[in-house]
Amino acid sequence: MYSYQLLLAAFLIFFVLQLLIETVLSVLNSRHLARQKEIPEALRAAYSQEVHEESVAYALARGRLGHVERFLSALLTLVFLFSGLINMLDFGISLLGFEELTHDVAVLLAFIMLNALLSLPLELYATFRLEARFGFNKCTLGTFVLDKLKGLLLLLVLGVPFLYGVLALLTRAGPLWWLWAGLFVIAFQFVIMVLFPVLIAPLFNKFTPLQEGELKTQLEALARQCGFATGGVFVVDGSKRSAHSNAFFMGLGKTRRIALFDTLIQQLSIPELAATLAHEIGHYRRKHILKLFVVSAALTLAGAYLLNLLLDWPLCQAFPAGISNEPKELIIVALISGPFTFWAGPLLNLLLRRHEYEADAYAAAQMGGAGPMQSALLKIYQKNLAAPLPHPAYSAYHYSHPTLLERIKALEAGAGTLPARIPGLDPLKNFS
After folding, report:
1. Edge-to-edge strand order for the sheet containing 207-209?
2. Of 4, 143, 265, 396, which cross-links 318 as Cys (Cβ 3.0–4.6 Å)?
3. How far apart are the first and last CA of the chain?
4. Which of 172, 250, 173, 160 is nearest to 204 (CA)?
């Protein structure tokens, strides 16, 4: 068997395997949720029957949309790989008469934009039909279009130089191009992490420093107690686009910030918001950001090396893309990589879930008890209509966070190990 035939056969086997596994898991989860007519016993004191039924309906609707997205994505992959579309894209760009490197960048850019354009109908449906049906969507069509234009601007301002750098290294850096390209990508990711809070995120959302008052006083006291130096706690106008609530940590060094959605501030009490902040600080104190960056860097270098090996294969023979060149080969690798790497997702989720447990435990310790963190989780999951009890196999495969019941039980199990009082913090005084 020729090498290109071997590659084609391997791709088709893993392609079907991934599609089958993800479909089976989705069906299992939908059937599992549909059988949950009543609230799980452990949540009956906190969840209403109405919220439970709505969360199940939301999860089932998302599951049905997921089926459509999965099969359309698979179909689109096959069309790109076997219809000659990649070759036509390359030929069309060649008519513009660009020099070689610019031609290569233009082909990759055109592929990215075409792929985004083809995914737009489902994104519109998800935003303006499904999310609106459950009361989440607050985004207007104008805001949606403006977001897309801003994303396009970022692609041109940041993506084009990035593509030039990677392709220049691939074609001109010799046998170790993959090492220099990998290091370039890592450096680029680091710069984006630093710039994201101050230059990129504000393009899409308004970040307002938390106003003076009891909430700010309590959160700043908590940050000081945790030894957490930050550029500030900011309120994000998330309600401009969605009723979903969230809190997140972003930036490095002087650009480090804690961001709280305005919807979250409306939903939680001061002790619950303090516990949420302590959870985010816990990610920093447990060095989760650094660990994930190291894992990402290692995967980037490994991916660059594997790409170096793959480019020695007759990719354009295995898939009808005409005469081989760098942009077409990179597009093919991007399209076929998913079926070979999909198994890595659940492994990464194991690490991410462990980080969430550690951050929850840190928050409970800083609050002098598990109560505020448990209460915050219950409200957040309810307000976001997150199904509290998905199928175990489905959640293990897809979820980067433990389920609600898993987090509540972990907090309860760790409550007996908490110190009676954390030095420098009197929960009854500061978080009543």
Report:
1. 207-209, 233-236, 257-261, 247-250
2. 4
3. 72
4. 250
- Amino acid 88 reads M
CA distances to 161, 190, 297 from 294, rounded to whole Å, are: 24, 11, 5
Active site residues: 280, 360
CA-to-CA distance for 308 and 287, rounded, in angstroms?
A: 32
Residues in the chain: 432
- Angstrom distance (rounded) from CA 370 to CA 368: 7
d(CA 151, CA 203): 9
Residue 363 C-alpha from the chain's centroid: 23
The first and second tokens of residue 279, run together, are 């959870």
Helices 100-118, 85-94: axis angle to 10 degrees equals 130
- For the chain, which residues score pLDDT lower than 70? 1-4, 253-255, 321-323, 415-432
H or E stretch including 234?
strand 233-236
Show me where the domains of the chain are located: 3-190+291-342
Pairing of strands 257-261, 247-250: antiparallel
Contact status, residue 383 vs residue 239, Cβ threshold 8 Å: no
Whose CA is closest to 109, among 166, 31, 70, 25?
Answer: 166
Strand-strand pairing, 207-209 and 247-250: unpaired
Q: How far is CA 273 from CA 215, 247, 338, in A?
A: 8, 9, 38
What type of residue sits at position 172? R
Distance from C-alpha of 354 to C-alpha of 202, rounded to nearest angstrom: 30
Place of tokens 């079907």: 16
* pLDDT in the model for residue 6: 82
Give the chain's largest Cα–Cα span.
Answer: 74
Please tell me whether residue 257 adopts helix, strand or coil conformation. strand
Residue reference for tokens 């999860």 = 59
Q: What single DSSP character describes residue 421? A: S
Distance between CA atoms of residues 273 and 222, nearest Å: 11
